[in-house]
Amino acid sequence: MKAFPMFLATTGRRIVILGGGEQAAQKARLVIRTDAEIVVAGLEFDEELRALADEGRVRLVDAREIRAELFDNAAITFVATGSAGADGALHALAKAMGAPVVNVVDRPALCDALTPSIVDRDPVVVAIGTEGTAPVLGRQIKTAVETMLEPRLGALAALAGRMRGAVGQRLSARARRDFWVWVFSGPVRAAHAAGSERRAAQLLKARLEEGPGPAEGSVAYVGAGPGEVDLMSLRGVRRMQEADLIVHAPGLAPGLLELARRDAERLVSDDPIAAALSAAGEGARVVLLVPGAGEELPGPLREAALTVEHVPGIRPGFG
């Protein structure tokens, strides 16, 4: 990666847009839903920008009166005049006056940060970037993601946010993960997507009142397939995202472990079956990741007195 993806905090901060035409209006549309103060500096202003100013959603200032104070506490400054010469001059001016993060429209070499394509389900936000190399591809991916996420998903996330404190007080870390997986994968999400917000809240609160059952360990015996990340089975990836511990023998392709949940523990063992059974016996949810298809479930796992799931991988050379 040549650019590290992250989200800029905007609360109590300012977003500055230098330019008053259509490009500046486009940037205003991009950031208008944030809670930042939006200041647009230009000589003449697009009608859309004037309308936004009349509504109190942006503040317009004369570009001839730009001072260093304009960039104090600015989360980001956009330079968007539509003129390459003016953009270059304003970029130099903004940096000289202390603007920490500057984005110049269609000038990646002058950008401290790149603008992604955005799927907005506030507070759920998906940002898609191509490091400025293929914006059309970024928009195509955005369209695909838009169809994956129901329009009301942000409201469900907001409900979850209101309940996080109560969940954190009542449930252990393991139980919390299980609870939120159930919320976002089961009847709560289905009810909310169908427009039944009250029913979704009732289901969530009732499940929380029930409390978790005793933590039971399990082993998912997952075949890694030919060793390529994009040839892992979907179920195998899901189990790796749910696991507390990933156990494997030496020599496994390291890229496969990138599919696991970030805070899952990793254990390399010369006897991975014994290690997996031991950890599961103590209540851990374990993925035993093996090279190849893993078509046969080993005898110790077949005979184990705990939950064992067999998730075969794609056979090497398949197709």
Annotation field: number of helices: 11
Beta-strand proportion = 15-25%
Helical/strand content category = alpha/beta
The first-level CATH class of the largest domain is given as Alpha Beta
N-to-C order of helices and strands: EHEHEEHEEEHHHHHEHEEHEHE
Low-confidence stretches: none
Radius of gyration: 26 Å
**Coarse shape:** elongated
Strand order across the largest sheet: 3-2-1-4-5
Note the gap between the termini. 32 Å
Could you say what the CATH topology of the largest domain is called?
Answer: Rossmann fold
Mean pLDDT: 92
CATH homologous superfamily heading of the largest domain: NAD(P)-binding Rossmann-like Domain
Helix percent band: 25-40%
CATH architecture of the largest domain: 3-Layer(aba) Sandwich
**How many discrete structural domains?**
3
> The biggest beta sheet, please?
5 strands, parallel
The counted number of beta strands is 12
How would you describe the overall organization of this protein?
A 5-stranded parallel sheet has the order 3-2-1-4-5, sandwiched between helices. Strands 10-9-11-8-12 form a 5-stranded parallel sheet, sandwiched between helices. The mean pLDDT is 92. The two termini are 32 Å apart. It is elongated, with a radius of gyration of 26 Å. It has helices at 22-31, 47-54, 84-96, 135-148, 153-170, 173-185, 187-193, 197-210, 234-242, 272-281, 299-302, and strands spanning 14-18, 37-42, 59-62, 74-79, 102-104, 117-121, 124-128, 218-223, 245-248, 265-268, 285-290, 307-311. The protein has 11 helices and 12 strands. One of its GO terms (molecular function) is uroporphyrin-III C-methyltransferase activity. Residues 219-292 form the Tetrapyrrole methylase domain.
